């Protein structure tokens, strides 16, 4: 049982159904959160529970801290702040890229089109 969540609900004077309504989930979902502390909810639901109860997420679900990896293997090596921006914002005065002209005789129908 998730005792930290149960105690936070008692401190906030909230029932399972009240917390479910505040977080936009089914009461059965809150029941699952209480019965299985090893399986934390989705991040947006953890944030909603935290706001509704006035508690930090790490207090209610201590295992969440272990989900965030840190260390030398998580070091940011290089940052590209404008990568992909050209796809979002058209450049002033830029033209559409030109498509190469079709070569004569390419495809299955080579030669002039004839009327029947």
Mass-distribution shape: elongated
The run of helices and strands is HHHHHHH
CATH fold call of the domain at 3-67: 434 Repressor (Amino-terminal Domain)
As a percent range, the share of strand residues is: under 5%
Computed Rg: 29 Å
Quick one: CATH class of the domain at 3-67?
Mainly Alpha
Q: Which class of secondary structure composition applies to the elements?
A: mainly alpha
CATH architecture of the domain at 3-67: Orthogonal Bundle
Biased composition (Basic and acidic residues): 95-106
InterPro entries: Cro/C1-type_HTH, Lambda_DNA-bd_dom_sf
Organism: Kitasatospora nipponensis
Protein name: HTH cro/C1-type domain-containing protein
Structural commentary:
The protein is an all-alpha fold and 116 residues long. The protein has a domain at 3-67: Orthogonal Bundle (434 Repressor (Amino-terminal Domain)). 42% of the residues lie in helices and 0% in strands. The protein has helices at 3-11, 16-23, 27-35, 43-53, 57-60, 64-67, 85-88. Helix 2 crosses helix 3. The longest helix has 11 residues, at 43-53. The relative contact order is 0.12.
Question: How is the topology of this model organized?
Answer:
Elements: H1 3-11, H2 16-23, H3 27-35, H4 43-53, H5 57-60, H6 64-67, H7 85-88
Helix pairs in contact: 2-3
Quick overview:
The protein is mainly alpha-helical.
Features of the shown structure:
single chain, 116 residues, mainly alpha, 434 Repressor (Amino-terminal Domain), 7 helices, 42% helix, 0% strand, HTH cro/C1-type domain-containing protein, Lambda_DNA-bd_dom_sf
